Amino acid sequence: MKKTIRKQFLFLAMLLLFVAACRQEEPTPTPAPTFTAATASATSTTPPLPPPTNTAQSVVEVPTNTPVPATDAQIPTATFTPAATAVPTVIIRVVDDNGNPIAGATVNLSNPAAGFAASFATTDDGQAVFTGVNLTTTTYTVEVSAPGFQSASREVTVAQPTTEISISLASGVTGRTTTITNLRNGPGLNFDILAEIPENTSVPILDVDSTEEWYKVISPNNLEGWVFAELIIVEGDLGGLDGEDTGDTGGTTPPTFTPVPPGAVTAVPTPSGTVTVTATPIPITDLELPLTRPAPIAFEVTSFRATMNDLEFLLFQMGGLLDRVAQEGSGDCNEYLGYYVQLAALPTYSNVPGEWVDIEAGFQNVINSVLSTNEPTAQFCVDGGVGELSPFNYSLARNGINDGLSLFYALRDAADALISQGG
Fold it and tell me: Which of 179, 199, 205, 265 has the fewest beta carbons under 10 Å from its own?
């Protein structure tokens, strides 16, 4: 009986060991928590905080404004595009007296202080349009000219976005005298003086001769005649003038100057109180050099000042002809001697007022000096008869004219200053 109980006890113990071994291979479940209801008490005691430890705690980051770099593939880079700036535009319309558009007119718009200058021709509708980033809202000068019309100028203040103005051009071309100017009945010094036009006088220009050295104008007292172009500042465009009307010459060819013999020059008073020169034509081969200057005439300020203009014209003509001879190798002796003889025929004066003595003496010195330095060239023409002028003695003759012009300009300025002072 005891053996049986011992065997059963031993078997039971081995069975328990086997079951325990099997349970160690499975996870031991965590026992479910139990909640015990808190018992209310008269006093509430705050449980103590756990002691701090060095264990890192989980922290939620607060975003900041620091930009986070990103690649082009992640976030596109934003670019700033400024708003377009409005560009001022100026529209200038050019019309005639009747309001009709003028095509091909030249329109200049400028402001030197702003560094702006531009030029356009008007279209068929008479408009010139200026636009660009260089235009600013400031004041500009507009200058307009067209063939056959008087020029016009005015100020325009540019505004945004568009400024439009209309400019009317008067028909014709005008000129302004730079000094006292002779009005002659033909384009040349051998034509009679009709009147004198005061300095700084505006006159309509009707025509220009074929040489472009003389303008046909209307004087303030309504006389038509011709003036030396060098004494006129043109206000307008001469392109509309045909250059075919040469007045009393009967054609487009300027008059041929016929030389005069010594002693054959006569001073003739004209209704205007000035002096013109008449000459008795003779063949060039009969000229005797040096030429004799005319007898003195009474000095008169206005007449003398006008004669100074004649001297300037002759010096220009002689010098220009000599330059053409040097460039082309030949020239017309008849034309050259015509200028030379007219130079000698310019008046001499008597009864010169004291304040004018030096100026009149310088005037005569210019004439005599140019005659002397050009005499060899003139003699060449006389010896060879009417024919071709050659570059013979060109330098001596041209230098004499240059020296004469230099002295003449000083005399002219002195004369104008004296006249302005009432002398």
Answer: 199
CA–CA separation, 201 and 232 (whole Å): 9
Condensed to tens digits (0 to 9), the pLDDT of residues 359-392 reads: 999 999 999 999 999 998 888 888 875 567 777 6
Q: What CATH number has the domain spanning 89-168?
A: 2.60.40.1120
Residues carrying CATH 2.60.40.1120, the chain: 89-168
Domain 172-255 matching CATH 3.40.50.410: the answer reads no
Q: Reply yes or no on whether the pLDDT at 266 is more than 90.
A: no
Written as one string, the DSSP assignment of 184-209 is ESSSSTTSPEEEEEPTT-EEEEEEE-
Spatial CA neighbour of 215 closest among 180, 184, 171, 250: 184
Q: Give the burial class of 383: count Cβ atoms within 10 A of its Cβ; 0-12 exposed, 13-18 middle, 19 or more buried.
A: exposed
Strands (E), 31-115: 89-95, 106-111
Using DSSP, state whether 107 is helix, strand or coil. Answer: strand
CATH 2.30.30.40 segments of the chain: 172-255
Amino acid (one-letter) located at 16: L
**163 touches 130 (CB < 8 A):** no
**pLDDT (tens digit, 9 = 90+) per residue, 277-295?**
444 444 555 678 889 999 9
Q: What are the start-end ranges of the E strands in 61-161?
A: 89-95, 106-111, 116-121, 127-131, 139-145, 152-157
Q: Can you tell me the distance from the alpha carbon of 218 to that of 170, in angstroms, rounded to the nearest whole number?
A: 16
Nearby residues of 305 by Cβ (< 8 Å), 6 or more positions away = 179, 180, 415, 416, 419
**CA torsion, ordered 373, 378, 383, 386, to nearest 10 deg:** 170
One-letter amino acid of 350: S
Q: Are 131 and 89 in contact (CB under 8 A)?
A: yes
DSSP for 318-364 reads HHHHHHHHHHHS-EEHHHHHHHHHHHHTS--EES--GGGHHHHHHHH
* pTM for the whole structure: 0.47
d(CA 319, CA 401): 6
DSSP-derived letter for residue 289 is S
pLDDT at 52 over 70: no
Q: Is the Cα torsion angle 242, 248, 250, 251 positive or negative in sign?
A: negative
- Taken in order 185, 190, 194, 200, the sign of the CA dihedral is positive
User: Before 161, cis peptide (omega within 30)?
Assistant: yes
